[in-house]
Design a protein that fits this description.
CATH architecture of the largest domain: 3-Layer(aba) Sandwich
Structural class: alpha/beta
Strand content: 5-15%
Order of helices and strands: EEHEHEHEHEHEEHEHEHHHHHHH
CATH topology of the largest domain: Rossmann fold
Distance between the termini: 46 Å
CATH class of the largest domain: Alpha Beta
Shape: globular
Radius of gyration: 20 Å
Number of helices: 14
Number of domains: 2
CATH superfamily of the largest domain: NAD(P)-binding Rossmann-like Domain
Length: 316
């Protein structure tokens, strides 16, 4: 299944009427995604680590309720979307390895469905899916790309891994959230596709940052260089969005540098497992490590330019 790309889409308000959906994880991406689901008529059960955030969002959305734990969310719905930062966080909210009673898995009915829409290591994704099958429930990994802008517009790119029946169950939700939806393969395949995506994003941010840093050092205004190469072979969405943030110095986080580093580390780990040497990835990962270790991990990932030429760029 592949749905074509499109621009921001209006919702009729009844696409998901009667569908009970749980949403666990209300961060930068989770909040706009939850809003889209509510606007399509879904009845939402919400949980995040900050109960106040969940309560505030529930108060603003029709048919939504904030619940005290992931288990309570799962008990109230038939499908739970998980949108948290990494594999450790997924394991914590789904299986609760600490007390073994408050995770999503403890409240799911038989034939319940968990959709992990964050970026999680492929091997651990397959392990999570196997553990969930032991309680009679199913797993789809469906990481997304497009950032908060696409999450708000409902134009996310969704890369899904899972069985055909499980993808069919998830598809109505995907169509509210995304404009391009691809069933890549079995469980774990979506996460492998997302790893490839994040590699390209990280490497391209690095290429744009190096090119603009070089331009500045060579005595030409980076904003003019960025404008000059629009429309040519070097044109990209990263040049448009992240390049603009670099030249304006707007590093307010839309996607944190710590998250990008996590994804580049995951790509390196996958390459190591596959026995494949990727020198470009290794060099790029070193830049992300330097940026985060330099105390800039909470900045937007476009701030990578600060790790390339801090003396020239930090004064802007």
């Amino acid at each position: 299944m592949t749905a074509g790309a499109g621009s921001g889409r209006e919702l009729a308000g009844n696409e998901l009427a009667g569908r009970r959906v749980g949403f666990v994880g209300l961060g930068l991406m989770g909040v706009p995604m939850a809003r889209r689901l509510a606007a399509a008529g879904a009845e939402l059960a919400l949980w995040t680590r900050s109960i106040e955030r969940a309560e505030d969002l529930a108060a603003a959305l029709p048919g939504a309720a904030a619940l005290p734990s992931p288990r309570h969310v799962a008990e109230a719905v038939d499908t739970v979307i998980v949108m948290v930062t990494d594999a450790d966080a997924v394991e914590a909210v789904v299986f609760d390895p600490y007390e073994d009673q408050w995770g999503v898995a403890h409240g799911l009915a038989e034939d319940g469905l968990v959709i992990d829409m964050g970026t999680t290591a492929p091997g651990r994704t397959r392990d999570f899916a196997g553990r969930l099958r032991m309680v009679g429930a199913d797993w789809v990994d469906a990481p997304v790309s497009g950032g908060t802008v696409a999450a708000e517009a409902g134009t996310l790119t969704i890369m899904a891994g899972g069985s055909d029946p499980d993808i069919a169950r998830a598809e109505p939700l995907f169509r509210v959230l995304g404009a391009r939806i691809t069933h890549v393969g079995p469980v774990g395949a979506g996460q492998i596709a997302k790893t490839a995506n994040q590699m390209i994003v990280g490497l391209t941010i690095g290429a744009v940052a190096e090119a603009l840093a070089l331009s500045k050092r060579a005595g030409v205004e980076p904003a003019r260089v960025r404008e000059a190469i629009f429309g040519g072979f070097a044109h990209s969405r990263v040049l448009e969005l992240h390049g603009e943030r670099m030249v304006t110095g707007d590093f307010q986080a839309r996607a944190k540098a710590t998250i990008q580093r996590k994804d580049m580390r995951a790509a390196q780990a996958l390459a190591d497992q596959a026995g494949l040497a990727l020198p470009g990835l290794a060099a790029n990962l070193a830049l992300w490590e330097a940026l985060v270790e330099g105390g800039r991990g909470d900045l937007d990932h476009s701030a990578l330019v600060l790790a390339i030429d801090p003396e020239e760029w930090d004064g802007d």
